[in-house]
Each structure stands twice: as structure tokens, then as C-alpha cells.
């Protein structure tokens, strides 16, 4: 490749980096997710399994759905 190609690649790389920086600055930094909702729901599942073993499958299914919904990226705010 010629020197012109290397300079052109560097210019494109700089423009992409500037555009990405501007996008991230406009969007704002994402807030970190907290783990306490997952820990609390698992603790409730353990308590339900211990207290009402016949309903454990329903409790764990609800916990899985709730934690999956909490973890998905479309649920993020900010």
C-alpha cells in the first residue's frame, strides 16, 4: 500500500474516533447496574422453597423472568 493509503486510513480513524467521542459525550455515561434485586429475589426463592416446597417451581420461574427482565439492555435508563 502506498503512503497515501496510510494517511487516508489515519484520517478516517481520527474522524471515527471523534464521532464516537461526541456520541458518547452526548449520550452520557451508563450507570452501573446494582446486584441487590437479583440477590433479594434469589433469597426469596430459597425461602419459598424451604417454606412451601410444592410451589418452588413457580417461585423460581417468576424469579428467572424477573431477573432476566432486570438484566436486559432495553431496561436500562439514562
Describe what this molecule looks like in 3D.
The protein is an all-alpha fold and about 80 residues long. Helix content is about 75%, strand content about 0%. It is built from 3 helices and no strands. It has helices at about 5-25, 35-50, 55-70. Helix 2 (about 35-50) packs antiparallel against helix 3 (about 55-70). It is rod-shaped and about 75 Å long. It starts with a helix and ends in a 7-residue tail after the last helix. The mean pLDDT is about 80.
Quick structural gist:
This protein has 78 residues and is mainly alpha-helical. The chain contains 3 helices and no strands.
The amount of helix comes to over 70%
Tell me the number of strands. Answer: 0
Q: What do the pLDDT scores average to?
A: 79
Question: Low-confidence runs (pLDDT<50, min 5 residues)?
Answer: none
Count of DSSP H/I helices: 3
Radius of gyration: 24 Å
- Please state the structural category: mainly alpha
Biggest sheet descriptor: none
Amino acid at each position: 500500500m502506498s503512503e497515501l493509503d496510510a494517511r487516508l486510513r489515519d484520517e478516517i480513524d481520527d474522524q471515527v474516533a471523534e464521532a464516537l467521542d461526541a456520541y458518547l459525550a452526548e449520550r452520557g455515561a451508563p450507570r452501573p447496574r446494582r446486584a441487590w434485586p437479583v440477590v433479594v429475589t434469589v433469597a426469596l426463592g430459597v425461602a419459598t422453597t424451604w417454606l412451601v416446597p410444592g410451589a418452588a417451581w413457580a417461585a423460581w420461574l417468576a424469579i428467572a423472568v424477573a431477573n432476566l427482565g432486570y438484566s436486559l439492555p432495553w431496561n436500562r435508563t439514562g
